[in-house]
Amino acid sequence: MVLGAAESPVLSFDVGGTDIKAGLVDARGAVLGMRRVPTPLDPARPGEAVLDRLAELAAELAAEFPGVPARAAGIIVPGIVDSVAGVGVYSANLGWRDFPFTAEAEKRLGIPVAFDHDVRSAAAVEHSFGGSKEFNDVVVMVVGTGIAAAVFSGGKAVTAGGFAGELGHAQVPDPDAAPGTTGSTILEAVGSAGAIAKRYHRASGNRVNGARDVLLKASEGDQAAARVWADAVDALAFTICQCVNIIGTEAVVIGGGLAEAGDELLDPLRTRVNQILDFQRRPHLIRAQLGQDAGLLGAAINARGLLGAGQ
Amino acid sequence: MVLGAAESPVLSFDVGGTDIKAGLVDARGAVLGMRRVPTPLDPARPGEAVLDRLAELAAELAAEFPGVPARAAGIIVPGIVDSVAGVGVYSANLGWRDFPFTAEAEKRLGIPVAFDHDVRSAAAVEHSFGGSKEFNDVVVMVVGTGIAAAVFSGGKAVTAGGFAGELGHAQVPDPDAAPGTTGSTILEAVGSAGAIAKRYHRASGNRVNGARDVLLKASEGDQAAARVWADAVDALAFTICQCVNIIGTEAVVIGGGLAEAGDELLDPLRTRVNQILDFQRRPHLIRAQLGQDAGLLGAAINARGLLGAGQ
């Protein structure tokens, strides 16, 4: 994968709720000195604590690869991100509000910084190189502990100041609603891998290691597991159909931990989407192809965008 | 309102499920010879029947205004419209599938034809001149007998080959679902003016003239009317929040018959939207400003776009 003409690498940081992944990414997309460290959580100065750690990682990488100084850095984070202003607007898990990441990171690193949203950046890589590249109206969903998404319309990323793609917080019918009510909850509370494990434990009393165990139990005839899995499929299908009706989504790429179920997820999801839709165009449901490094590659592409052509 | 430099008018046709509106629209947006005739319904040749009627209307207007020949025509229709290909993909009410409107209309009228979607065209006028013009991420909903919508993202219309904006067919929780189920229905079946009148009749046995009567009865203490109105508000708020979560919609313009309720609709709708949303940006809810002629103006602007600059 050729990321640009330049041979000099860029620094790439994928800041997650649990871990930070860091590395130097060269012009061919190869990651040098890849490392993973816990994300520091400091409620008093959440943004600063993360950037302090990134500066340490940058120094380590500079010491490890003295011959190839990074000329730009890419940082991606979760939550609501205003990439134009360079501001982390909000992160529920990491705790910042309106933190000026680009300016503060450039102070610490001394090189230009491209700051953007984690899932949008990874999804742009997935959308450029993966199974949805022939489509213009695409949603990339990352279904793991939570659910995040990137939305493409007419071939372009929909950002809306960082507020687009909050599919995990979109309302779905609540399978646990009291009888006779039309209560709703959010997709993440039913359709995420985390919710599947949690709701199965609540329904059965049995502890499981994750959504994969629930799927296994369902295949062995466990009724509670089958119900919880079906609820998740229903909720994911519900949200996919909202995308189809609102913005005419023609392909949905599903990544994250839950996508590892492959056709055991995608087949019932297709069936349910077909049941809900009427005259509308049926979306292609596609498993994500790129793995854990899509975020690092996305951050690197963002950083390389700061360098002029041929840089 | 100045539509362009040209003094010569364009033919404008707004084809609805019940009526066709037609007129000559001059460069200032004034409508000459405006008329309204029933939409012909011919199940065997639905597209041709409509175009035959448009050709008759064009001949009438040419005879009435002999000094100002139209140099282009705009035709807008409901349903799924592929304006790039010039094809009426599907109309549930009018019955066509994949009918080549642009090519067939140009044969009959002998001038260039701009063919597009009715609500998207009217919404573009509303969005250019109305209360949402300062916003980039906007949904314009027309809530009448049914519900249609136009979606703008980053300042541009989202079309997705004609499949975007089907908000009336987006799923919402079904207030009539059997107890203990999480059934859902479509927005149009609960939140439209047509549904409000129909559901009140079903709940109370009382016939009403329309949604406005139900609102009046609710204000007089009729519990069934209040319930039906609240269900409609819930359903509209549910769909608005889907737009906010998926594409970061920052303003929703509401037009059509139901918008005539003004703040009696918008105030409870704002309250309900605020209850559903959490950290998300709250959308501005705005009443549409342009009236019945927005469609004709939109079709005229489309037609004028076919003429070169200064034509």
UniProtKB/TrEMBL annotation, chains A, B:
Pfam families: ROK. InterPro entries: ATPase_NBD, ROK. PANTHER family: BIFUNCTIONAL UDP-N-ACETYLGLUCOSAMINE 2-EPIMERASE_N-ACETYLMANNOSAMINE KINASE, ROK (REPRESSOR, ORF, KINASE) FAMILY. Belongs to the ROK (NagC/XylR) family. This is ROK family protein. The lineage of its organism: Bacteria, Bacillati, Actinomycetota, Actinomycetes, Micrococcales.
